[in-house]
Structures
1.
Amino acid sequence: MYAFNYHRPDSLEAAIGLLRTCEDGLFLAGGQTLLQSLRQRLAQPSDLIDLGALPELSGIRREGDQLVIGAMTRHAEVAASDLVRQSIPALAALAAGIGDAQVRNMGTLGGSIANNDPAADYPAGVLGLGATVVTSERELAADEFFTGMFETALEPGELIREVRFPIPRRAGYVKFAQPASRYALVGVMVAESAAGVRVAVTGAGPCVFRVPAMEQALAQDFQPQALDGIEVPADELNDDLHASAEYRAHLVGVLARRAVKAALAGL
């Protein structure tokens, strides 16, 4: 690990101001990815700005037909929240399946989506539910937030404050987990709302993505069999020691059907 300056500001304004004055500063949320990168000397920031002392970035509340979750809210809090379980059971199930207990008690919603790991669960939840990412500067729709492998629309110095999830009529999330890490080899979120049906896939490609053909089929008939015959091309999917692109393409179809079943069952 390289040497760096450590800061723990007590206000959002102070955190943003610190980053602007640092030569090469980084925000620290849960640290589940960043700390490993530091240990392996894959990152060399001049300063780390710990967001752990900012209560305004944490918490879960309902505002009308939206569930609002602060960026520093831990996965375990989302999984255990009665409000989340009542409003969007699929989101609670997603959070409960992330990593292990240690990861869930440290990792945060904001840190997960800001990192945008290709195999992370939350990007599928945010994109599949059509959420809005609220930052220190603006509001970003999920469709424009995730831009590529480990890349988002966030600008330098921009900080995620909260995520606003529209409450769907029904939704389901199912993943096939890599046994050791619990990352998604493939994960699928299916959600039906007044705005239509959304199907988001994580783990299969370099970045979370939607499947329009499945969305159109489910809009006509929200049943697992509606997806029969719909395939995702393997051409641009991930191919590694854990699973081939062809296997991942097959899993997308299998898990999408299971996600529909979970949505119908209210899970």
2.
Amino acid sequence: MYNFNFHSPGTLDEAINLYNNSEDPKFLAGGMTLLASMKQRLISPSDLIDLRNISNLSEVSLNDKVLKIGSLCSHFKLSRNEIINDKIKNLAKLADGIGDPAVRKMGTIGGSIANSDPAADWPAAILALKSQIITNSRIISNKDFFTGMFETLLEDNEIITSIEIEIPDYFNYKKLPNPASRYAIVGVAIAKYGNNVNVAISGASHTPFIAETISDYLSNNFSNDFPEKTIAKDDLNEDIHASAEYRVNLIDVLTKQIINES
């Protein structure tokens, strides 16, 4: 590691001011990716601005049918939260399947989606569910948020404050995890609102995406007899973990498993 300045602001305004007045700053949430990147000297920020003392970013609330999750809620906290377990139980199950206990204790939902790792679990859920990302300056639609591998619509000095999710009629997420990292080789999230079904995929491509053909079919016929291999393998990753063809089959298998459990 190398020398850097560490800041622990108590408010959003203080955090933004510190960022704007630093040479090459980074916001710190859980630090699961950021600190590992620093240790490997892939990045070398001049200042780390720790957001964990901003208390109102760690709350979960329910207003009518809208769940509001503070961006600094840890995966562990969300897996145990009574509101989430009551209203979207499989979202709590998703949180409980992330990484190992240390990662779940420290990692945050806001940090995960801001990092936009294509194999992370939260992005698929956020895309499938009717949701929006609230920042210190605006509201961003879930469909617009993820723009590329490790890229989002966020500005450099913008902070996610919360994620708002409309409670679905049904939600589930399944993945084939990498046995070492627990990241998704393929992850499938399905959210159902009346006759409207969204199927979102993580791990299979450079960015999480909506499987439009499967979503449209399931919106008209929510059963596991949907056409298989509707996603072109040319659009999917091919790496040491799985071939593109294998990922195509995994998407079909995981989708059917989710439907069978509905």
